[in-house]
Amino acid sequence: MKIAVSGKGGVGKTTLAALLAQVYAQAGRNVLAVDADPSPCLAGALGFPSEIRSQLQPIAKMDELILERTGARPGTVGGFFTLNPQVDDIPERFSASHRGVRLLEMGAVNLGGSGCICPESAMLKTLFTHLLFRKDDVLILDMYAGVEHLGRATVDFVDAMLVVVEPTRRSLGTAAQIKSLANDIGLNRLWLVGNKVRSPEEGEFLAAETPDLPVLGVLPADMAVQEADRLGIAVYDHVPALRQAAEQMAAALESQLVKSA
Ligand SMILES: Nc1ncnc2c1ncn2[C@@H]1O[C@H](COP(=O)(O)OP(=O)(O)OP(=O)(O)O)[C@@H](O)[C@H]1O
Ligand SMILES: [Mg+2]
């Protein structure tokens, strides 16, 4: 199962990605979590101890590896480099595991067809597509940006795109944009996840405002989330209300995917 998590900046994408990864790992599934943020923070959200975190480095920053695989040094423009470098060994070699969640940090991913045509984007693009083709038990993508950079492979292989929103009109506006961009490329398996929800009214607001985007579930606002971050503990371990909400969401998603299959 492949789940992509998207949404406006700061809404809680990383918090949700970490919670779901740990819910699935706890259920005995093999989970590969991918951090596509230029300044990675999923390791922290997963509560990876610092000695394990120190083994990780975003692929985008591995100049020597990119040179070895593409034939050109990152930062160079023009010249020759391969557009389909070997990447199949990368997920295992450059990831780290903790409590059943394997984590790969990709770094800044500009997957767009337009924009930068450079060795590092060739590398990341190929790696991203490879991850989508792989037969991982559970793949969770913490997407940094919106979905404007997603290609065909995403449409074909992502089982669910979760759009995280706060109960505000502004946040819902971004969700609507994401939905329309996703629909443009043919990706229709989208669900909304409400986060930082403080009351039943706020939950109802989300459902009422987005009749064409089903709400998979909501995560309550909880001061303990920030506390977990400060203490370096996973929200999964520190905030039972969020863990339970994520468990329900994972179950709801499985049953909806079975229904739509
Ligand atoms: N349910 C919640 N209750 C309270 N605070 C929350 C909740 N969820 C997330 N936060 C806080 O909101 C902030 C942003 O969360 P998070 O990093 O998960 O968002 P993000 O969408 O991944 O952000 P970015 O766009 O920067 O990657 C963090 O400080 C986090 O502790
Ligand atoms: Mg994030």
Briefly characterize the structure.
44% of the residues lie in helices and 17% in strands. The protein has helices at 13-26, 42-45, 50-53, 63-70, 90-93, 119-133, 152-157, 169-184, 200-209, 223-231, 235-238, 240-260; strands at 2-7, 31-35, 96-98, 101-105, 138-142, 160-165, 190-197, 215-220.
Describe this structure in words.
By secondary structure, the chain is an alpha/beta fold. It is built from twelve helices and eight strands. It has an eight-stranded mixed sheet with strand order 3-4-2-5-1-6-7-8, with helices on both faces. α4 crosses α6. The radius of gyration is 18 Å and the shape is globular. Magnesium ion binds next to α1.
Shape estimate: globular
- Small molecules in complex: adenosine-5'-triphosphate, magnesium ion
Mind describing the biggest β-sheet?
8 strands, mixed
Roughly how many Å is the radius of gyration? 18 Å
The number of E-state strands comes to 8
Q: Provide the structure class.
A: alpha/beta
Stretches where pLDDT is under 50 for at least 5 consecutive residues are none
Tell me, rounded to a whole number, the average pLDDT.
90
Question: What's the arrangement of strands in the largest beta sheet?
Answer: 3-4-2-5-1-6-7-8
Binned, the helix content reads 40-55%
Series of H and E elements:
EHEHHHHEEHEHEHEHEHHH
Instruction: Please state roughly what percent of the residues sit in beta strands, choosing from under 5%, 5-15%, 15-25%, 25-35%, 35-45% or over 45%.
Output: 15-25%
The total count of helices amounts to 12
Helix-strand blueprint:
Blueprint: E1 2-7, H1 13-26, E2 31-35, H2 42-45, H3 50-53, H4 63-70, H5 90-93, E3 96-98, E4 101-105, H6 119-133, E5 138-142, H7 152-157, E6 160-165, H8 169-184, E7 190-197, H9 200-209, E8 215-220, H10 223-231, H11 235-238, H12 240-260
Parallel strand pairs: 1-5, 1-6, 2-4, 2-5, 6-7, 7-8
Antiparallel strand pairs: 3-4
Helix pairs in contact: 1-12, 4-6
Bound molecules: adenosine-5'-triphosphate and magnesium ion.
